[in-house]
Model the fold of this input.
Amino acid sequence: MNASRAPYQAVIFDWDGTLLDSTHHIVGALIGACQDLGLKVPSPEEAGWVIGLSLQAALYQLAPELPASEADTFAEHYKTHYRRLMHELHLFQGQAQLLQELHGYGVVLGVATGKSRRGLDTSIQSLGLQGLFQATRTVDEARGKPDPDMLEQLLAELELAQDAVLMVGDTTHDVLMAKAAGIDSLAVSYGAHRASLLQTSQPTALVHSVAEMQAWVRSSVRI
Done:
């Protein structure tokens, strides 16, 4: 962080690939659903690129030949594959401690994710993170990334100025959403998008490991 700027009062996190070590599972579920329906099977990189987007936007990228009438069928196949792996999902090392520490110091915490409301709430509960986030937004309540709607809603609900908030995410969709909302972004290259791709979206800062992300956030917030 630029030493001359005021510390951030709030941190908004993406979920999958940023806090939750789930990128591999989502890629596998997307590829599995494509195989089930006889669609062109994307490469792991192609499947990883759509992580964070709404299902409709992801399908447009992965399977433009799929009729809109079959989108629900695709979603069910994806969910079936994903549920088989849910018991394996866990936070990246040290993320729970980071969240608890920031919350304890009074830093406002939020989530902006391409997951469904049910999916996010289930994940938060299963990981024992209830009560740590003051506000969250999913694609069920807002337009999908990179549209800034999620962040704009969170800023309004939390009554925070743009320069008081940091967005942390693992995809260009997160960075572009933050940029459109007028807030700073910290991109992490340990998730869905490679560092070279993340750099094209020009985040405020880019880090390459979970430990680096945690250190950067700790040094940049008001505690």
In short: DSSP finds ten helices and six strands in the chain.
